[in-house]
Write a structure and sequence with these properties.
Layout (H helix, E strand, L loop, with lengths): L1 H6 L8 H10 L9 E3 L7 E2 L5 E10 L11 H17 L4 E11 L5 H17 L3 E9 L5 E10 L15 E5 L4 H18 L11 H8 L5 H9 L6 E4 L4 H12 L1 E6 L7 H10 L3 H7 L6 E5 L4 H4 L5 E9 L4 E4 L5 E3 L4 H5 L2
Parallel strand pairs: 4-5, 9-12
Antiparallel strand pairs: 1-2, 3-6, 4-6, 7-10, 7-11, 8-10, 9-11, 12-13
Helix pairs in contact: 3-4, 5-6
Length: 348
């Protein structure tokens, strides 16, 4: 049965642009009162009453941001939305709506776009998001997907990158470095496959890190947790480009310095073992890997008792005066200036 589905290739031209949008979005349901008008008119209409509106957008390009030789289309649809939701949560806001635009070449049949939109539908359902618009157009160079996410936040609750103060604590959710190592495994297996297409990779030892690369999650739960703990971060950012880059963004926007403690950086055991296998330093991966979509934030020391026992959160550093600079404090006690490698330059 699955084989028949894979063999069916309905050309995009069979639907036309508007028919295609109707076909791909027919299952999307409206869940939020703030969505007055969704898909089906010239534009969406939203009403947020007394809340501030949060807007963010991202563009993902085939061959730059994803490789379809190992990224399933359903996962791609899911991840494209998660990337944007993470930015909304980093403002301490609630994500409510998205628009999705896709540029696609004629090498993709309708069934491929159905897979992509199945991923979007899944994430919209899990994260309680309304899909309120978008566009499809043709592309000469493969697939591009652009998602815009919209959210709401009480003006008193919003958190910027610029609010960290000396003596605040630097906190991260979850663990870091896993998405980058998942990518390393996938890239290695792709090269093996090129040499021997009959070779079936054993990915069982890498399930966690591969999932972190192909199907990351945004930390909506952390925003809810902080609200329940009555903790408002003084600054916050999401981890898309790597820990070092994001720490530098926070410090520069807040005009502060920072000590980051190497021994405190949370690493999954699978990251550590895979780093050993690849002969890569795990701290380097944690600092520069990117695509973890965890939340990095600062809190007042007064809030430390509220978060100290929580397994989702790790205090990894200490905010200092700007003149003190930004440093990694190694396990040996040496201070090394933090530099932003970022995932783009990592292989270089």
């Amino acid at each position: 049965m699955i084989e028949d589905k894979n063999q069916q290739r309905t050309p995009l031209s069979e639907f036309g642009e508007f028919g295609l949008i109707d076909h791909l979005t027919k299952n999307f349901k409206i869940k939020h009162k703030s969505t007055v008008k969704g898909i089906g008119d010239d534009a969406a209409i939203l009403n947020f009453e007394n809340k501030n509106v949060v807007v963010t957008t991202d563009l993902l390009v085939e061959g730059v941001h994803f490789d379809l030789s190992y990224m399933p289309l359903k996962h791609l649809g899911y991840k494209a939305v998660i990337v944007n939701l993470s930015d909304v949560y980093a403002m301490n806001a609630k994500a409510t709506q998205i628009t999705v635009s896709v540029a696609v070449s004629n090498r993709f049949p309708v069934e491929a776009l159905e897979e992509l939109y199945a991923g979007i539908e899944t994430v919209a359902s899990i994260y309680d998001i309304d899909v309120v618009g978008g566009d499809t157009t043709s592309s000469t160079t493969g697939l591009m997907i652009s998602v815009t996410a919209i959210g709401e936040v009480d003006p008193k609750a919003e958190v910027y990158r610029s609010g960290a103060k000396p003596n605040d604590l630097l906190v991260v959710s979850g663990d870091v470095g896993a998405a980058y190592m998942g990518l390393q495994v996938l890239e290695r297996e792709k090269e093996v496959y090129k040499v021997n297409p009959q070779n079936q990779p054993d990915l069982e030892p890498y399930t966690y890190i591969i999932e972190r690369q192909l199907k990351p999650e945004a930390r909506k739960d952390v925003i809810k947790l902080l609200e329940e703990l009555n903790v408002k971060p003084t600054s916050m950012i999401d981890l898309s480009d790597g820990l070092s880059s994001e720490i530098m963004h926070l410090c520069k926007q807040s005009k502060v310095g920072c000590d980051l403690y190497e021994e405190k950086i949370p690493l999954d055991p699978q990251v550590i073992s895979t780093c050993e296998e690849f002969n890569i330093d795990s701290t380097t991966v944690a600092l520069n890997g990117g695509e973890d979509y965890e939340l990095l934030f600062t809190v007042s020391q007064n809030d430390y008792p509220k978060i100290k026992a929580n397994p989702n959160l790790t205090v990894i550093g200490f905010i200092k005066e700007e003149r003190d600079g930004m440093h990694l404090v190694t396990r040996a006690g040496t201070k090394i200036p933090i530099k932003a490698q970022g995932w783009k330059n990592f292989n270089a």
